[in-house]
Automatic annotation (TrEMBL):
InterPro entries: Wun1-like (IPR009798). Pfam families: WI12. The lineage of its organism: Eukaryota, Viridiplantae, Streptophyta, Embryophyta, Tracheophyta. This is Wound-induced protein 1.
Length: 204
């Protein structure tokens, strides 16, 4: 399923100062500022992209609306694969989440390949494993591919040194199509949910 998500989180109270917002952050989120303010792109690209994504998870955990709006594009493109009941992130960002539907995303591994940042986590008590493939453009998250209870293999298409603008992102279901596409990453937590899960391939 593909969505273009427009967020319905309440905006930060105008009376809340930047200093107040900073005090709400912790860990990576506290160190994150809007790219135009701190020149985040001057850092190593992979490192800065990982920092952006980790800052988002910190902001989601603390429900820091200001930081979430800084990090995510307002017209975020969303791809989802998994049970419809597991669309926790969409419900959280669109304001449709309730206490009974809450799910805390705790990253257990993070890897990046240029503009693509892969994050994986698992909640064995609920038999749920999840993977997020985030796309970062100029310090802003513009796309997320979300996989629940899915085994994911990531392959590289074309020249690894190609610029992000020339990269192609697609899912390939036929293994024969991957003959010339080296695998660069495989999910490792999907086998912890205690049941068989489907497998997909993401080409970047």
């Amino acid at each position: 399923m593909i969505f273009v998500v427009h967020f319905d989180w309440p905006r930060v109270n105008p009376s809340k100062t930047d200093e107040d917002a900073d005090n709400c952050l912790s860990g990576y989120a506290r160190s994150y500022k809007a790219p135009c303010l701190v020149g985040i792109l001057e850092e190593n690209s992979d490192c800065s992209n990982r920092r952006v994504v980790l800052a988002l998870y910190e902001a989601l955990t603390s429900r820091n609306v200001n930081t979430v709006h800084q990090i995510l594009a307002p017209d975020l493109e969303w791809w989802f694969h998994g049970p419809p009941s597991h669309q926790f992130l969409m419900r959280l960002l669109t304001g449709a989440s309730s206490n009974g539907q809450s799910f805390q995303f705790v990253p257990q591994s993070i890897t990046s390949f240029g503009p693509t940042v892969l994050v994986e986590g698992c909640d064995p008590t609920r038999s749920i494993s999840w993977i997020h493939a985030w796309t970062i453009t100029d310090g802003i998250i513009t796309q997320v591919r979300e996989y629940f209870n899915t085994s994911l293999t990531v392959t590289r298409l074309g020249n690894p040194t190609d610029s992000p603008s020339s990269s192609v992102a697609s899912e390939i279901s036929s293994a024969s199509s991957l003959h010339h596409c080296p695998s660069v990453w495989e999910s490792s937590l999907s086998n912890q949910v205690g049941k068989s899960v489907p497998g997909l391939v993401l080409a970047i």
